């Protein structure tokens, strides 16, 4: 936990971290509202709302990741591979759409588990694909314990968030709480994973 906090406070721009968190919450809240609208709709309209919720939520989660990466200050010049960066966006949108559709297609705890797993798996794949897109003058080394911990946190928070979402009730709290929990899951996954990364200069970059 201490290493995660140190990673956030000493290796990231605090203003951009705050912006990333805000984007994540707004995207999660928007997806929660659209998901609720889907549950209160019928036939084709229901699926339009669900896909819209997934696509918009996925784009927002990807934007969260990208802004958080812009906040990352590893002490070396950082570039981004365009193809892998766009692939990470596609993964986020498809996985979040699969999560919202699963929430509707299944019932009870099965729906929550499927939606949470799709969302967390997609967020993790998006994150690590985005990390592969980073071009730095060195070698990237990962601490597997932090990687596993980040994915575990993402899964737990995602399942809880989807368990709380999808109600046909239009109360503010029924949309706010799932958004907050989902935001916590995305942020926890991102920064726990980032705490496990070390960039080592390679021989070609050392004078």
Relevant terms:
single chain; 207 residues; mainly alpha; two-stranded antiparallel ribbon; 76% helix
| Global geometry | elongated
Amount of helix: over 70%
How would you classify the helix and strand content by structural class?
A: mainly alpha
Tally of separate helices: 7
Strand elements, count:
4
- State the major sheet: 2 strands, antiparallel
Query: What is the element string, with H for helices and E for strands?
Result: HHHEHHEEHHE
The low-confidence parts are none
The percentage of residues in β strands lies in: 5-15%
Q: Radius of gyration from the CA trace?
A: 17 Å
For the largest sheet, list the strands in their spatial order: 1-2
What is the terminal separation in angstroms?
35 Å
Mean pLDDT: 85
Describe this structure in words.
With 207 residues, the protein is mainly alpha-helical. The protein is 76% helix and 6% strand. The strands form two sheets. It has a two-stranded antiparallel ribbon with strand order 1-2. A two-stranded antiparallel ribbon has the order 3-4. Helix 5 (108-132) packs antiparallel against helix 6.
What does this entry show, briefly?
This protein is mainly α and 207 residues long.
